[in-house]
UniProtKB/TrEMBL annotation:
Keywords: Polyamine biosynthesis. NCBIfam families: MFS_SpdSyn. It comes from Pseudonocardia oceani. InterPro entries: MnmC-like_methylTransf. Residues 123-186 form the MnmC-like methyltransferase domain. This is Fused MFS/spermidine synthase. It comes from the Bacteria. The keyword Transport does not apply. It holds the Pfam family Methyltransf_30.
Length: 289
Protein backbone atom coordinates (compact mmCIF):
# COMPACT_ATOMS: atom_id res chain seq x y z
CA UNK A 1 0.00 0.00 0.00
CA UNK A 2 1.45 3.36 -1.02
CA UNK A 3 1.18 7.03 -0.26
CA UNK A 4 -1.68 9.30 -1.18
CA UNK A 5 -2.04 9.76 -4.92
CA UNK A 6 -0.32 12.85 -6.23
CA UNK A 7 -2.21 15.13 -8.62
CA UNK A 8 -1.18 15.07 -12.26
CA UNK A 9 1.42 17.68 -13.09
CA UNK A 10 0.10 20.73 -14.87
CA UNK A 11 -3.50 19.80 -14.07
CA UNK A 12 -3.61 16.94 -16.57
CA UNK A 13 -5.78 13.92 -15.94
CA UNK A 14 -4.91 10.25 -16.22
CA UNK A 15 -4.75 9.19 -19.86
CA UNK A 16 -6.71 5.96 -19.35
CA UNK A 17 -8.32 3.77 -16.74
CA UNK A 18 -9.37 0.14 -16.39
CA UNK A 19 -11.91 -0.97 -13.80
CA UNK A 20 -12.64 -4.60 -12.91
CA UNK A 21 -14.32 -6.69 -10.26
CA UNK A 22 -11.76 -8.91 -8.53
CA UNK A 23 -12.14 -11.51 -5.81
CA UNK A 24 -11.87 -9.07 -2.90
CA UNK A 25 -13.32 -5.84 -4.25
CA UNK A 26 -13.02 -3.51 -7.21
CA UNK A 27 -9.64 -2.91 -8.82
CA UNK A 28 -8.82 0.11 -10.94
CA UNK A 29 -5.78 0.84 -13.07
CA UNK A 30 -5.13 4.54 -13.66
CA UNK A 31 -2.77 5.62 -16.41
CA UNK A 32 0.01 7.94 -15.27
CA UNK A 33 -0.20 11.16 -17.31
CA UNK A 34 3.55 11.72 -16.94
CA UNK A 35 4.81 8.25 -17.90
CA UNK A 36 3.55 6.55 -21.09
CA UNK A 37 3.61 3.08 -19.54
CA UNK A 38 3.04 4.09 -15.92
CA UNK A 39 0.03 2.75 -14.04
CA UNK A 40 -1.36 3.05 -10.51
CA UNK A 41 -3.35 0.16 -9.09
CA UNK A 42 -6.17 0.90 -6.64
CA UNK A 43 -8.33 -1.66 -4.85
CA UNK A 44 -11.57 -0.34 -3.39
CA UNK A 45 -10.17 3.16 -3.74
CA UNK A 46 -6.92 2.46 -1.89
CA UNK A 47 -3.70 2.97 -3.84
CA UNK A 48 -1.83 -0.34 -3.81
CA UNK A 49 0.95 -0.09 -6.38
CA UNK A 50 2.52 1.99 -9.13
CA UNK A 51 4.51 0.45 -11.97
CA UNK A 52 6.22 1.71 -15.10
CA UNK A 53 6.33 -1.08 -17.66
CA UNK A 54 9.04 0.76 -19.61
CA UNK A 55 11.24 1.25 -16.54
CA UNK A 56 10.68 -1.13 -13.59
CA UNK A 57 13.41 0.72 -11.68
CA UNK A 58 11.17 3.78 -11.47
CA UNK A 59 9.54 3.62 -8.04
CA UNK A 60 6.80 6.14 -7.42
CA UNK A 61 5.70 5.35 -3.87
CA UNK A 62 7.90 6.51 -1.01
CA UNK A 63 7.84 3.28 0.95
CA UNK A 64 8.74 1.18 -2.09
CA UNK A 65 11.74 3.41 -2.73
CA UNK A 66 12.84 2.77 0.85
CA UNK A 67 12.42 -0.98 0.43
CA UNK A 68 14.56 -0.75 -2.70
CA UNK A 69 17.27 1.06 -0.72
CA UNK A 70 17.29 -1.91 1.65
CA UNK A 71 17.58 -4.35 -1.26
CA UNK A 72 20.39 -2.35 -2.82
CA UNK A 73 22.40 -2.36 0.40
CA UNK A 74 21.57 -5.94 1.36
CA UNK A 75 22.62 -7.51 -1.93
CA UNK A 76 25.14 -6.49 -4.58
CA UNK A 77 23.79 -5.05 -7.81
CA UNK A 78 23.50 -7.86 -10.33
CA UNK A 79 23.73 -10.63 -7.73
CA UNK A 80 20.70 -12.95 -8.00
CA UNK A 81 18.45 -13.27 -4.97
CA UNK A 82 16.02 -15.86 -3.71
CA UNK A 83 13.04 -13.75 -2.73
CA UNK A 84 9.59 -14.38 -1.27
CA UNK A 85 7.15 -11.50 -1.60
CA UNK A 86 4.07 -11.79 0.60
CA UNK A 87 1.55 -9.51 -1.08
CA UNK A 88 1.45 -8.94 -4.80
CA UNK A 89 -0.38 -5.82 -5.88
CA UNK A 90 1.11 -4.96 -9.25
CA UNK A 91 4.44 -6.67 -8.39
CA UNK A 92 6.42 -3.43 -8.20
CA UNK A 93 9.34 -4.53 -6.03
CA UNK A 94 9.63 -7.98 -7.69
CA UNK A 95 9.96 -6.22 -11.05
CA UNK A 96 12.69 -3.98 -9.61
CA UNK A 97 14.60 -6.97 -8.23
CA UNK A 98 14.23 -8.86 -11.52
CA UNK A 99 15.83 -6.12 -13.63
CA UNK A 100 18.51 -5.05 -11.14
CA UNK A 101 19.45 -8.62 -10.18
CA UNK A 102 18.83 -10.80 -13.24
CA UNK A 103 18.44 -14.49 -12.56
CA UNK A 104 16.78 -13.95 -9.19
CA UNK A 105 14.32 -16.65 -8.15
CA UNK A 106 11.24 -14.86 -6.90
CA UNK A 107 7.87 -16.05 -5.66
CA UNK A 108 5.02 -13.57 -5.25
CA UNK A 109 2.05 -14.62 -3.12
CA UNK A 110 -1.25 -12.83 -3.68
CA UNK A 111 -4.56 -13.97 -2.20
CA UNK A 112 -6.76 -12.35 -4.87
CA UNK A 113 -6.79 -14.54 -7.97
CA UNK A 114 -8.87 -12.03 -9.91
CA UNK A 115 -6.29 -9.34 -9.20
CA UNK A 116 -3.49 -11.65 -10.37
CA UNK A 117 -5.39 -12.23 -13.62
CA UNK A 118 -5.92 -8.49 -14.11
CA UNK A 119 -2.28 -7.60 -13.49
CA UNK A 120 -1.05 -10.46 -15.67
CA UNK A 121 -3.24 -9.31 -18.55
CA UNK A 122 -2.84 -5.55 -18.28
CA UNK A 123 0.60 -5.14 -16.67
CA UNK A 124 2.50 -8.20 -17.91
CA UNK A 125 5.92 -9.05 -16.51
CA UNK A 126 7.08 -11.08 -19.48
CA UNK A 127 10.66 -12.26 -19.26
CA UNK A 128 11.08 -11.32 -15.60
CA UNK A 129 10.66 -14.91 -14.39
CA UNK A 130 8.26 -14.15 -11.56
CA UNK A 131 6.50 -17.10 -9.99
CA UNK A 132 3.14 -15.61 -8.98
CA UNK A 133 0.90 -17.87 -6.91
CA UNK A 134 -2.58 -17.35 -5.52
CA UNK A 135 -2.85 -18.07 -1.83
CA UNK A 136 -2.81 -16.79 1.73
CA UNK A 137 0.49 -15.23 2.78
CA UNK A 138 0.63 -16.93 6.18
CA UNK A 139 -0.07 -20.36 4.70
CA UNK A 140 2.55 -19.82 1.98
CA UNK A 141 5.10 -18.81 4.60
CA UNK A 142 4.36 -21.90 6.68
CA UNK A 143 5.02 -24.11 3.64
CA UNK A 144 8.33 -22.44 2.76
CA UNK A 145 11.41 -24.48 3.72
CA UNK A 146 13.72 -23.19 6.44
CA UNK A 147 16.66 -21.02 5.28
CA UNK A 148 15.28 -20.96 1.73
CA UNK A 149 15.23 -17.26 0.82
CA UNK A 150 17.61 -14.31 0.94
CA UNK A 151 14.88 -11.64 0.96
CA UNK A 152 11.41 -11.84 2.52
CA UNK A 153 9.07 -8.92 1.90
CA UNK A 154 5.80 -8.38 3.77
CA UNK A 155 3.51 -5.93 1.97
CA UNK A 156 0.00 -7.30 2.44
CA UNK A 157 -3.10 -5.16 2.71
CA UNK A 158 -6.73 -6.23 2.70
CA UNK A 159 -8.09 -2.94 1.46
CA UNK A 160 -6.14 -0.48 3.59
CA UNK A 161 -5.14 -2.75 6.52
CA UNK A 162 -2.67 -5.55 7.11
CA UNK A 163 -4.65 -8.60 8.32
CA UNK A 164 -4.20 -9.62 11.95
CA UNK A 165 -2.71 -13.04 11.22
CA UNK A 166 0.25 -11.27 9.56
CA UNK A 167 1.02 -9.02 12.53
CA UNK A 168 1.71 -11.53 15.30
CA UNK A 169 4.94 -12.58 17.00
CA UNK A 170 4.48 -16.11 15.63
CA UNK A 171 4.25 -14.79 12.09
CA UNK A 172 7.51 -12.81 12.38
CA UNK A 173 9.26 -15.79 14.01
CA UNK A 174 8.24 -17.94 11.04
CA UNK A 175 9.58 -15.29 8.68
CA UNK A 176 12.92 -15.50 10.46
CA UNK A 177 12.86 -19.29 10.06
CA UNK A 178 12.51 -19.03 6.29
CA UNK A 179 15.44 -16.63 5.86
CA UNK A 180 18.84 -18.04 4.98
CA UNK A 181 21.84 -16.91 7.07
CA UNK A 182 22.48 -13.26 6.29
CA UNK A 183 19.00 -12.86 4.80
CA UNK A 184 16.85 -9.77 5.13
CA UNK A 185 13.26 -9.30 6.30
CA UNK A 186 11.48 -6.16 5.09
CA UNK A 187 7.98 -5.22 6.25
CA UNK A 188 5.75 -2.36 5.21
CA UNK A 189 3.88 -1.11 8.29
CA UNK A 190 1.17 1.56 8.10
CA UNK A 191 0.47 3.55 11.25
CA UNK A 192 -0.48 6.93 12.65
CA UNK A 193 0.15 9.19 15.63
CA UNK A 194 2.25 7.60 18.34
CA UNK A 195 3.10 4.58 16.16
CA UNK A 196 1.31 2.32 18.64
CA UNK A 197 0.81 -0.46 16.10
CA UNK A 198 4.33 -0.12 14.68
CA UNK A 199 5.72 -0.51 18.20
CA UNK A 200 4.08 -3.95 18.46
CA UNK A 201 5.75 -4.89 15.19
CA UNK A 202 9.08 -3.61 16.51
CA UNK A 203 8.66 -5.90 19.51
CA UNK A 204 7.86 -8.93 17.35
CA UNK A 205 10.90 -8.28 15.17
CA UNK A 206 13.13 -7.65 18.19
CA UNK A 207 12.36 -11.16 19.43
CA UNK A 208 13.08 -12.73 16.04
CA UNK A 209 16.14 -10.87 14.70
CA UNK A 210 19.52 -9.92 16.10
CA UNK A 211 19.70 -6.69 14.12
CA UNK A 212 16.98 -4.17 13.25
CA UNK A 213 16.56 -0.92 11.35
CA UNK A 214 13.63 1.14 10.11
CA UNK A 215 13.04 3.93 7.63
CA UNK A 216 10.25 6.42 8.21
CA UNK A 217 9.29 9.91 7.03
CA UNK A 218 9.95 12.57 9.67
CA UNK A 219 6.29 13.62 9.74
CA UNK A 220 5.21 10.03 10.41
CA UNK A 221 7.84 9.51 13.10
CA UNK A 222 6.85 12.77 14.79
CA UNK A 223 3.16 11.86 14.74
CA UNK A 224 2.12 14.62 12.35
CA UNK A 225 0.59 12.30 9.77
CA UNK A 226 -0.36 8.72 9.00
CA UNK A 227 2.12 6.86 6.81
CA UNK A 228 4.47 3.96 6.24
CA UNK A 229 7.30 2.55 8.32
CA UNK A 230 9.69 0.17 6.56
CA UNK A 231 11.00 -2.28 9.16
CA UNK A 232 14.14 -4.34 8.46
CA UNK A 233 15.43 -7.38 10.34
CA UNK A 234 18.36 -9.75 9.90
CA UNK A 235 20.72 -12.05 11.76
CA UNK A 236 23.63 -9.99 10.43
CA UNK A 237 24.59 -6.40 11.08
CA UNK A 238 22.62 -4.05 8.87
CA UNK A 239 24.21 -1.27 6.75
CA UNK A 240 22.68 1.53 8.79
CA UNK A 241 25.16 4.19 7.60
CA UNK A 242 24.39 3.29 3.99
CA UNK A 243 20.67 3.46 4.66
CA UNK A 244 21.11 6.91 6.21
CA UNK A 245 22.91 8.14 3.08
CA UNK A 246 20.36 6.60 0.72
CA UNK A 247 17.41 7.93 2.70
CA UNK A 248 18.88 11.43 2.90
CA UNK A 249 19.56 11.56 -0.84
CA UNK A 250 16.09 10.35 -1.83
CA UNK A 251 13.53 12.84 -3.20
CA UNK A 252 11.40 11.77 -0.20
CA UNK A 253 13.91 11.95 2.68
CA UNK A 254 13.45 9.59 5.59
CA UNK A 255 14.91 9.08 9.01
CA UNK A 256 16.67 5.82 9.77
CA UNK A 257 16.15 4.23 13.17
CA UNK A 258 18.96 1.97 14.35
CA UNK A 259 18.67 -1.21 16.39
CA UNK A 260 18.94 0.49 19.77
CA UNK A 261 16.28 3.08 18.92
CA UNK A 262 13.83 0.45 17.68
CA UNK A 263 14.27 -1.75 20.74
CA UNK A 264 13.79 1.27 22.99
CA UNK A 265 10.56 2.14 21.16
CA UNK A 266 9.22 -1.42 21.09
CA UNK A 267 5.96 -2.10 22.82
CA UNK A 268 4.49 -5.55 23.42
CA UNK A 269 4.29 -8.11 20.64
CA UNK A 270 0.89 -9.72 20.17
CA UNK A 271 0.40 -13.47 19.95
CA UNK A 272 -1.75 -15.05 17.26
CA UNK A 273 -4.70 -15.01 19.66
CA UNK A 274 -4.33 -11.31 20.46
CA UNK A 275 -3.10 -9.91 17.13
CA UNK A 276 -5.05 -7.13 15.45
CA UNK A 277 -4.99 -5.62 11.95
CA UNK A 278 -3.04 -2.47 11.25
CA UNK A 279 -5.07 0.71 11.86
CA UNK A 280 -7.38 2.12 9.24
CA UNK A 281 -5.84 5.17 7.58
CA UNK A 282 -7.83 8.39 7.70
CA UNK A 283 -9.68 9.70 4.66
CA UNK A 284 -7.37 11.26 2.12
CA UNK A 285 -4.49 8.86 2.66
CA UNK A 286 -3.41 6.11 0.24
CA UNK A 287 -6.06 7.33 -2.20
CA UNK A 288 -8.94 6.64 0.22
CA UNK A 289 -11.99 8.87 -0.24
Amino acid sequence: MGRALRPARGGRTARASVRAEVDHGVAELLGDPDRPQGWTLLVDGTAQSHVDLDDPTHLEFEYVRRMAHVVDLAADLGAPLRALHLGGGAWTLPRFVAVTRPGSRQRVVEIDGGLVDLVSARLPADGLELDVVVGDARAALARAPAASVDLLVLDVFAGARTPAHLTSAEFVADAARVLAPGGTYVANIADGAGLAFARTQFAAAAAAFAHLAALVAPAVLDGRRFGNVVLVGSDRELPVDGLVRAAAADPFPARVLDDARIRAMAGTAASDRAAVPSPMPPSGFFGRP
